[in-house]
Amino acid sequence: MQDKYSLAQCEHYGRRLATRLSQQFFGPQPAATLDGPALLKFTPIRQVNLLVLRQLLSRWQQEANALRSPYFDFEAAPVRAALGQFMNVLSRHIRLDRAALEPLLAQAIADTLALATDARAAFERLLLPPIGPDTTLDAADEPVPLATLRDYLRYFDQAKPFFEGFVGSLPTAGEPLGREALRQRFEAYLAAHGAELPALAPLVTEFTALLPLSVADLREPGPVKAAPVPPAAPRPAASPAPAPQPQAPPPQPAPVAAVAEHQPTPAPPAPARDERPTPPAPTEAPLYAKLKATQPHTPHLADTLRGAAGGAHSLAERAAPKVVSLREAISINQRFSFINELFNGENMEYHAAIQHLDTLPDAGTACTYVQQELAARHDWSLKQEHVGKLLKLIERKFAGA
User: Taking the CB of the first residue and of the last residue of the chain, which one, N or C, has fewer CB atoms within 10 A?
Assistant: First the structure.
């Protein structure tokens, strides 16, 4: 069985290591800054340094897009050439202090670990162009030029041959593929060439030299095992029933006054011996019944769905910010969790369901679709935890509607 690694564990380690490295460098010189050449040598792991630079490139692209204005033609060839030259000049004048570097460094460490533990997450984050917070659903699936993918390959060091092979497998003629088509092709390529990905252990050794790390630290925490139920102690053998004794003739009652005068107050009579046959010992309860009795009650899926469709009043009371698009609100971690747990690993089923939910007019219709279509089709009766997370996002989307 293939190990399952946790992106959350990768991110946790990334923050710890980024804090340590930043303290080592900036502690003695708090006002110091890093330029581009120093950044490429900041850690002994080249992939981490390259991914910090890649994040700077993404930030610059976002800021350049913010410069666009309806009053000027930013697509004109001279403007595009000038912006490209400006970017090249600016890239030679990088200046990062600790406050700017540490979060970039933490993310770069987590992404480096993701390259070795979760190729799908690495593909989404590192090879596909980033999606801005204001990107519409249609714009998010716009074609991705092959040149853009090749440009991003410059920031790969670890697993670079694997991702170069994927980009090389894409068609060079015709229209560029959209993000969804690229995801499908990557899934097929990963299934055929996943064995070509580098092993995790050598990378863990490199990180351990900076901050102790083990492969077990990155695994998904497994389910808590119930304490073993000790075997029932053997029941003592029933002692043989005593042989019946011949009964003496009942004594003649003494006068009440004499009894009260010469004898102490008698103790209450012992209960009569139950002469009925001893009932058979109850059979031992099955193990699953004992475990179930110790677990908190889990609501039925129908109850979970009914609670989520409680009406506009309950939705409006939610404190979480409203979700505009489910597709954009679902994080990478959640997406893969939903795909694996709710859609049995079927990427297309997941995207089709989320896209349909985004088109529905209200929470009631969405919950009905979840209950009558998705839950029945994919057998979600034992997956209330993941269904609950999806329903919370639906509630936030229709809050106040």
Answer: N
Among 88-97, 187-196, 351-360, 392-401, name the one with the lowest average pLDDT.
392-401
86-96 pLDDT per residue, tens: 877 877 788 99
| Torsion angle of the four alpha carbons 337, 338, 344, 349, in this order, in degrees rounded to the nearest 10 | -140
State phi, psi for 357 to the nearest 5 degrees.
Answer: -60, -35
Per-residue DSSP letter, 127 = I
How far CA 174 is from CA of 17, 134, 146, 177, 343, in Å, comes to 45, 29, 11, 9, 32
Distance (Å, whole) CA 200 – CA 218? 10
For the whole prediction, is pTM greater than 0.70?
no
- Boundary residue ending a domain (218, 243, 272): 218
- Residue 59 located in a structural domain: yes
159: left (phi over 0), alpha (psi -120 to 50) or beta: left
Cα–Cα distance, 291 to 225 (Å, whole number): 10
> Which is nearest to 35 in space by CA: 58, 14, 52, 13?
52
For 27-78, the pLDDT digits (tens) are 999 999 999 889 999 999 999 999 999 999 888 877 877 778 888 888 899 9
Q: Is 132 left (phi over 0), alpha (psi -120 to 50) or beta?
A: beta
Could you report how far apart the first and last alpha carbons of the chain are, in Å? 45
Same domain, 197 and 97: yes
Residue where one domain finishes, among candidates 197, 218, 239: 218
- For residue 253, tell me if it sits in a domain: no
Beta bridge partners of 399: none
Asked whether the beta carbons of 287 and 371 are under 8 A apart, the reply is: no
Tell me which residue range forms the domain holding 117.
7-218
Number of domains observed in the structure of the chain: 2
Q: What is d(CA 322, CA 360) in angstroms, rounded to the nearest whole number?
A: 16
